[in-house]
Design brief:
With about 400 residues, the protein is of the alpha/beta class. The longest helix has 16 residues. It is elongated, with a radius of gyration of 25 Å. It has 3 domains: about 130 residues, no CATH class; about 130 residues, Transcription Regulator spoIIAA (2-Layer Sandwich), CATH 3.30.750; about 90 residues, Transcription Regulator spoIIAA (2-Layer Sandwich). It is built from 13 helices and 12 strands. Strand 11, helix 13 and strand 12 form a beta-alpha-beta unit.
Length: about 400
């Protein structure tokens, strides 16, 4: 026999709290703390921290009560305050039992599912069927949400590069050179590289040249992310890190990014007053190989960018390069369990830039808690959301 959680006394209602004794900002201005993090919502909400682990939402004007509860629950979940989000949603579904309130029910279903709470999920299913006179979502999976984004596993046949791409990483370069001597045609996995310096870039260029001299070619897995790292190390007119410049040109060449190659080559020539490398059409290999933790093929056969697990302070460094090669950008969020505010803001900013190119963007199969947070941040004018069918 299943007992409905509606028989329990309601938890204390969470209410919006005003900012502590600070001057009211001028109309249109975000609060200083929110502005610092870029975390203001389209409806005029500001995320305010009042002590460790606390998030409150300050309303500036009238707002629909369903929308208010949706936004508060999404923020709490993004901040890993699962119990507070559950309490708010369990109270909210008692109040909003029809029409737009269904959004709150669907968020609570996903919260139960992600935390492996089958009994309250089933109880909610009975109440949902009575309230909305239709079948509730089906239980799928369960168990605790993935605690963190798993480390990328090198694709089959790839040689892993251990450590950072720096000149003092002698062991990793020695292993790579040995692998090239055995087989000049190979694939190296650079997906875990988070830092690069000029000496490391020059050493990798030497290995690539060595492979070509032996009649082979090295395929680089994770080159979009590596290109983003290199781009952050160079600047036109700054005569520093020539190895980073040349490795970036090499990556643009291998990715077939002709326009980026030509622009960077001109900047390199002006900065260092030397002739840049020439574009070689025969070496433009086209799209990068699918990274183990990135692009995947969706149900409709369109390539999809597919992050996984909990996204915390994620920069999505390889997303612009992936999007550049697609006619329409599909993001498969079916394996994303949570996204924090920083990651959500970064993602929406990137998608806004990509969308200005006239490219269609679809976020496929996010859970409702993630989808609502992305909506709070401002995703809806930029991308379509495609929910999984029950």
């Amino acid at each position: 026999m299943v007992f409905s959680f509606f028989k329990k006394p309601p938890p204390e209602r969470m209410v919006a709290k005003p900012a502590a004794a600070s001057p009211r900002p001028a109309a249109g201005d975000a609060s200083p703390s929110a502005a610092a993090d870029g975390l203001t919502t389209p409806s005029g909400f500001s995320v305010l921290s009042e002590g460790a682990g606390a998030i409150h939402i300050q309303a500036e004007g009238d707002i629909d009560p369903v929308e208010s509860d949706v936004e508060q629950a999404a923020v709490l979940y993004a901040n890993a305050q699962d119990e507070a989000a559950r309490a708010l949603l369990e109270q909210a579904v008692r109040v909003h039992c029809q029409g737009p309130g269904e959004r709150l029910w669907l968020m609570l279903f996903d919260l139960y599912r992600l935390s492996g709470q089958r009994a309250p999920f089933d109880a909610l299913s009975l109440e949902y069927a009575r309230a909305f006179e239709k079948s509730p979502p089906a239980w799928s999976g369960g168990g605790q949400a993935a605690p963190a984004k798993p480390a990328a596993v090198p694709p089959a046949g790839a040689v892993p590069f251990n450590g950072e791409l720096t000149g003092d990483n002698a062991a990793a370069f020695a292993a790579l050179e040995q692998a090239v001597d055995k087989s000049p045609k190979l694939r190296i996995a650079l997906g875990k590289v988070k830092a690069v310096d000029d000496a490391g870039a020059e050493r990798l260029l030497g290995v690539l040249a060595r492979a070509r001299k032996q009649g082979g070619e090295i395929d680089v897995d994770g080159r979009d992310a590596l290109a983003a790292l290199l781009e952050s190390r160079i600047a036109a007119g700054r005569r520093e890190a020539p190895g980073c410049w040349l490795l970036l040109l090499e990556l643009y060449q291998s990715m077939g990014r002709h326009a980026a190659f030509e622009e960077t080559a001109i900047d390199y020539a002006v900065t260092f007053e030397v002739s840049p490398p020439s574009w070689e059409p025969q070496r433009a290999a086209g799209p990068a190989p699918a990274p183990a933790d990135g692009a995947a093929v969706g149900d409709d056969a369109l390539p999809a960018y597919a992050p996984k697990g909990e996204l915390k302070a994620e920069r999505f460094a390889d997303l612009p390069g992936f999007a550049e090669r697609q006619e329409a950008l599909v993001l498969d969020f079916s394996a994303v369990t949570r996204i924090d505010f920083v990651s959500a803001g970064t993602l929406v900013n990137l998608l806004t830039t990509i969308g200005r190119q006239g490219k269609r963007i679809v976020v496929r199969h996010p859970n409702r808690l993630v989808a609502e947070l992305l909506g709070v941040i401002g995703l809806h004018p930029v991308a379509e959301i495609e929910f999984a069918r029950n």
